[in-house]
Each structure stands twice: as structure tokens, then as C-alpha cells.
Specification:
heterodimer; A: about 240 residues; alpha+beta; Beta-Lactamase; Arc Repressor Mutant, subunit A; five-stranded antiparallel beta sheet; about 55% helix; B: about 200 residues; Aminopeptidase; seven-stranded mixed beta sheet; 7 helices; about 35% helix
């Protein structure tokens, strides 16, 4: 599981443009062996960008028919920030059933979950995992991979934000405290020693490291320290 | 009971929402003297209420607001990131596993135990969503109240009487909060499930 995420993060940090990011999304789909993955970002300016493994014919149909105005997934995700399982949504409406049937005819799987993501400055994204399996297998799949896929969704979004912003992403800058925490770890201090030195609790230290890890797109603390060192954000 | 409602869902609970925003006026403007915006209806709201936050509300048996708080993910705009970054180490803390909690409010008529039920609801939410922590903004002396209630935050910074604090989610704390609030763990879980029946199963497991 961790290796799949590792692979994604490596591809993401190597991705220097949106095409490479799209390839990372396709590779992630293949690694998890699901039917489709969809990442779709809308900025407050209205600019949109997506990386999706759907057939172009389905995308065209969806847009032609304005399905987004009655798609239960879009409607339920737009004003929330917790994930939804497709089968727990209300598909009884005529239009909703039409979307589902049309989608399946275009090769979509019968199962899915979607995660709405809130980014800085009113940016919004939707990350969807779509699969073709029975209910029991789907439950097993989500139980095994949900957490990692949610993290993957956020990492893809962060990378997309920094690529779209020409590499300038103020929300990804490390705070002074996060820099201090990574500097002490890079110097070989234990968490307990680093917390004591900064006169904060270990819970608090852990949160500064977690936040730095997320901003750096790193899977673990070692990776975060290495990444901060190689970018010159901390020194030894 | 405990309700978990997104901003857009408040329209279907209009009386409860009106109650909540008026109780916020009573707490933050009248009792604490904060410089907050109150509209013609007597509701205290700010720009973060416009971001479709998730409200956690303790509702009395006759349907009134007894206490509430408000959550937003730290990946998006938050009060701490926008207004108080100096309280959290000089910049915003951002993580999909950490949500911000603001406007911890008790109704002037709230009975004893409402604050404990509110903390239990926060814990239920954190564990249910697989979060590691919650970051809060509160009146500095409140830290003593939280300690008395059984769940003390680590204070990250304080300035001009406003503190940023960090709560850590754990099953040990959750069990203790259930006991302190005298709420059965299964009941607490049922209230959560009523709101989040559409969550994928593994998040709720």
C-alpha cells in the first residue's frame, strides 16, 4: 500500500507540467487496478483542469447533456468536504438514473466514491475512484485502500496547485516553527529532544511535522527532511 | 441529541440555525465582548460561515440550540491561517488530517453537561473522519474550562487574549468523554451515523 503511494509521490515530485501529472493519475489507476480515477479542479477564477481516465466519448456526452447539473455526486460534493460513497446517494430520480445508465454504457464501473477537496483561495477539487465489483468486494477494497487514496487525492491536488501557480505556491511555504522542527530532526534529534528544545509538547511537534510533510508532498518524516534539505529550506 | 450539519443543510433546520446564531451573539458579543458582526436579525456570523462549514450542534429535547461549534478543513481557508498565523508557529498549519474548530458556543440557558456533550461530539467527528487533530481558536482563559471538562488542548500560541490550541483524537480520550458526558458510546455513534450515512464504509469503520 505504502509503495503505491511512494510511487505516486515520486511521480508527482518529478512532474513538471500538467501532462506529467495526468500520467501520474493514470499510473495510480493502474497500480490500484480500478476502472477509473478522476481528478477535477475548479479555481475561484473559474479556471478548470482535470486528469481523468474516462473515455473521451463519455466526457463529451456528460458535457453535451449538462449532466453536472443533476449528477448526484456533483450535487452532494459541492458543498461539503467529506467523501461520499456513490451507492449511498439518491439515484431514484429519472435524470440521475439516466446518468448512471449512460455512464455504465460508456465503461464506468458500478461502484465509486468521491472526495471533495478544499484548497486555498476558494479552490475546489473532486477526486473520484470508480470500480467494477460487487458490494462485498467494494467494501473490502475501500476498507483496505480508502485512507491511502484520500491522501493520494490531496497530494495530487497540492501538486496541481503548485504547477498551475508556476511553482509559486505561498500556501506551501514552511512556517518558521515547521522549519525549526525539521532542522532539529535533520540534525539527528529525537522527537522528544526536538520537542523539549522547542519547548512544545510532542503532540504539537507531531502536528508541525505533519503539516510540513503535507506542504512538501512527502510520505514520511525522513522524506520530508530530505526534501527540505534538497530544496535548501533547511540547512545542516 | 447531536446534529452534524453542513452550512447548506441549515436551511432545513431554520429554527435551530436562528437559535444558534443568536446564541453566538449572546456569547461572543454580549458576554465576551468580542468585536463581531451582528446583523439585523441579531445573528452573529463571519466570512467562515459563508464557506459551508460543518456545524456540530447539541439540540435540546424541545429542539433548541444548546451549544455548537464549527469545523473547516485546514487545506482550505481558515480563521487561523488568514487571521492568526502568528499563533501557530508563524504560518498556517495545513493537513488533510487536521480540521479547524471555531465558535465553541454555549446557549445562556444550556444545562450542565452540554459542554461535555459538545466535546464528545467533536471527538466522535474526529475519530469518524479518521482525523489526527483539531486546531481551535478560543478565548485564552477557556483552556482551564476545557481542562475541567476533561479534554485539554495543547496551547500553540496566545496573543491579546486569544489562543490557538491543539486537540488530539484518541479512543482513550473518547471513552473518557463518553463517561464524563454520560452518553453511551453507541448512542454517540448513532447520531454520527444519522448525519454521515453516505460516507464510504471504511471511514466509519
Amino acid at each position: 500500500m505504502v509503495r503505491k503511494l511512494d510511487d505516486l509521490l515520486e511521480r508527482l515530485s518529478d512532474a513538471q507540467n500538467l501532462d506529467a501529472l495526468e500520467q501520474a493519475v493514470f499510473a495510480l489507476r493502474d497500480k490500484y487496478d480500478v476502472e477509473h480515477l478522476v481528478y477535477h479542479s475548479v479555481k475561484s477564477s473559474g479556471d478548470q483542469w482535470g486528469a481523468l481516465t474516462y473515455d473521451q466519448a463519455w466526457v463529451d456526452t456528460y458535457l453535451d447533456q449538462n449532466f453536472q447539473t443533476s449528477d448526484p455526486v456533483v450535487l452532494s460534493c459541492f458543498r461539503r468536504f467529506t467523501p461520499v460513497d456513490w451507492k449511498r446517494l439518491d439515484w431514484t430520480g429519472r435524470q440521475a438514473r439516466a446518468i448512471l445508465n449512460e455512464g455504465i454504457a460508456h465503461g464506468l464501473g458500478n461502484q465509486g466514491f468521491s472526495l471533495p477537496i478544499r484548497g486555498p483561495s476558494g479552490q475546489f477539487a473532486l477526486f473520484t475512484v470508480n470500480h467494477k465489483v460487487g458490494d462485498d468486494s467494494w467494501t473490502r477494497f475501500t476498507r483496505a485502500h480508502m485512507h491511502d487514496l484520500l491522501l493520494a487525492a490531496h497530494y495530487v491536488n497540492e501538486r496541481a496547485l503548485s504547477l498551475e501557480g508556476d511553482g509559486h505556491a505561498p500556501h506551501q511555504a514552511l512556517s518558521p516553527r515547521e522549519t525549526d522542527a525539521l532542522t532539529l530532526l535533520a540534525a539527528g534529534r529525537s522527537r522528544a529532544q526536538a520537542a523539549e528544545r522547542l519547548q512544545i509538547s510532542e503532540h504539537t511537534l507531531r502536528v508541525y511535522i505533519e503539516s510540513a510533510r503535507f506542504k512538501l508532498g512527502a510520505l514520511n518524516t525522513t522524506h520530508a527532511v530530505a526534501s527540505a534539505l534538497s530544496r535548501g529550506l533547511i540547512g545542516l | 441529541m447531536i446534529r452534524y450539519l453542513y452550512g447548506t443543510e441549515l436551511t432545513t433546520h431554520a429554527d435551530l440555525a436562528a437559535d444558534m446564531f443568536r446564541d453566538r451573539t449572546a456569547q461572543f458579543r454580549d458576554r465576551m465582548g468580542w468585536d463581531v458582526q451582528v446583523d439585523d436579525l441579531g445573528w452573529e456570523t463571519d466570512q467562515y460561515d459563508a464557506l459551508d462549514p460543518l456545524y456540530v450542534i447539541v439540540q435540546s429535547e424541545c429542539g433548541h440550540h444548546e451549544g455548537s461549534m464549527r469545523f473547516l478543513p485546514t487545506t482550505g481557508p481558515t480563521m487561523l491561517a488568514d487571521i492568526f498565523p502568528h499563533l501557530t508557529g508563524g504560518g498556517p498549519i495545513r493537513s488533510p488530517m487536521i480540521w479547524e474548530c471555531t465558535r465553541f458556543c454555549l446557549s445562556p440557558d444550556a444545562g450542565p453537561g452540554v459542554a461535555r456533550r459538545l466535546l464528545l461530539a467533536a471527538s466522535e467527528l474526529g475519530l469518524g473522519m479518521g482525523l489526527s487533530n483539531s486546531l481551535g481558536v478560543f478565548d485564552a482563559p477557556m483552556v482551564r474550562v476545557y481542562r475541567r471538562l476533561g479534554w485539554q488542548p495543547d496551547v500553540l500560541g496566545t496573543e491579546n487574549g486569544i489562543s490557538a490550541g491543539l486537540w488530539t483524537f484518541s479512543t482513550e480520550t473518547h471513552d473518557a468523554l463518553c463517561a464524563a458526558a454520560r452518553v453511551d458510546a453507541r448512542q454517540s455513534r448513532r447520531w454520527f451515523d444519522e448525519a454521515f450515512g453516505d460516507l464510504p464504509v471504511s471511514i466509519r469503520a
